[in-house]
Amino acid sequence: MARPPAWRHTLDEARRQALVAIDFYNRPGDRRSFSDFIVHIHLAWQNLLHADRMRRKAEIFYRESGGRRIFKRNPDGSKKTWDLSQCLKHEFKDNDPIRANVEFFVGLRNHVEHRFQDSVLVATAAEAHACIINFEAELVRRFGSRETLGSELKFPVFVQSLSPSRYEEQRNLRRGLPAAVSSFITEFQVGLPDEVRSDERFAYRLLLLPMKGPKTEADLALNFVRQEDLSEEELQALLGQEGSVIVAEKYREAVHGDEMLPKAAAAAVEKRIPFKFGVNDFTAIRKAWQIGPAKSGDKEQLPKSDGYCVYSPAFKQFVYRPKLVDRIVGAVDTAEKYQALLGRSPTMKASDGT
Q1: Which of 251, 284, 250, 254 is nearest to 266 (CA)?
Q2: What is the pTM of this model?
Q3: What are the tens digits of pLDDT across the range 129-147?
Q4: Which residue range or ranges hold the DUF3644 domain (predicted)?
């Protein structure tokens, strides 16, 4: 049997390190280690890029300056291979979302202390998810579908974040971030262009919608659907189907369709009722209904926001859908309803003749 090429061992090591990283991330309780996840996913990426460059007979070793034939050496005499940052510079363009995501974890590696790792894990969950998805995508793109990790990984069973009662726990963990880590995350993200920061290859966010019903004929517990590809009617139709639907919602950019900023949403309500209705009224009602952010500037949405609003990186705030305007109009279109909801008598709009 022919000896496998040298890059084969490096690729196998990349796959092994990725599986170890995912295992450390998904372990429950005290067995979880976010710092180990970062170390092993770092090694996974480095080995993946080394393997591909070896296969292509491209450079992976440092050389002495001014001497292209002289390699830099490790203390044991072996050639010094490129570190991950060097590989990324040669394999991805500047401001590539995949490169930005991996560089985020390269920088984060020295900021994670064991006692704060749960706080860091919560604050960086979207980036960690993207890092794994990107690794799998690059693995398959570079070496073919036979190398996929998909056959060795299953969707994890968990309870965290699925219950609204756990939201406050998540927020408390975020508030427990050490100042140095919080500063690093903020400064890194602020330094990225908006289109990179909002790209799902940099941070991949999931909205989980548990569904009731018997198993499907294919006996699948989960079906994957992109929310951005669905109309409101299609989304509502899916909610009534059997099985569970996981909806991956990617931040939208500058174009928002029918969504409105708060002032425009309030004006749309006022246009359809006989009373004056301002942005403060709109804010009071949406908060009472637990829709949108708890306070201005927050990116975290209240638990009943789904379908009514979406965060806009372009406007750096939430924008609201016509569905919410329709609901508010139906709730304040008479003086009695207005008084019951807002706690005061409405003021009639001036007629056109006055």
Answers
A1: 284
A2: 0.55
A3: 889 989 998 999 999 988 9
A4: 10-190
